[in-house]
Specification:
32% strand, Thiol Ester Dehydrase, Chain A, alpha+beta, 6 strands, 3-stranded antiparallel sheet, 6 helices, 170 residues
Amino acid sequence: MTRTIFKTDKKENFNSKSFRTMMNVFPAFRRTGGRVSFISNDWKEIHVSLGLNWKTRNYVGTIFGGSIFGSLDPVYMLQLIKILGDDYVVWDKAATIKFLKPIKTKVFARFLLTDEILNEIISKVKSENKYSIDLTASFQDENNLIYSEMTKTIYIADKNFYKTKRIQAE
C-alpha cells in the first residue's frame, strides 16, 4: 500500500482494496502519476498521493500541473457514485485549481465526505430533483504545507428526473 499521512479510524475491505488496485492500474489515472493509497469500506474517505518522478516532472523540475489536477480530478465523482447508488446521476460540472507552491516532494490529498454533506445532498435532491455542490481537496506534504487547492463542482440528480429531462431535451 502507498504511504499516507492521514490518520483514520476507517478500514478498507476487499471491495475497496480491489477498486483501489484497479484505479491505480487504470491507464488514464495511472498516467497522472497519482496513486490511490486508501479507500474506506464506506467510500466516505479516500487518500491519494503524488510524487515527483520522471513521469510527473515538468520542464522546470517540479510536478507538472496536469499531474496535480489529473490525480485529484476523478475522486469526488467516484465517491458519490459509489455512496449514492443507482438512484442518482452524478457528473463533474466544473473545476478550478490553485497552484500555490511548486511541488518537489511527495504530497497527499484526503477526500472526506461527511454524513452532514451526504445528508445535504440527499435532502436537496429530494426537494429540488437536482443539486450542485462545491467540494474541495488539497495536496499537502508531511508537514501540512499546502501546495495546491482544487474545488470541484459536482452535479447530482434524481435518476428519473434526469432521464425525463434528457427525453424532453431531444
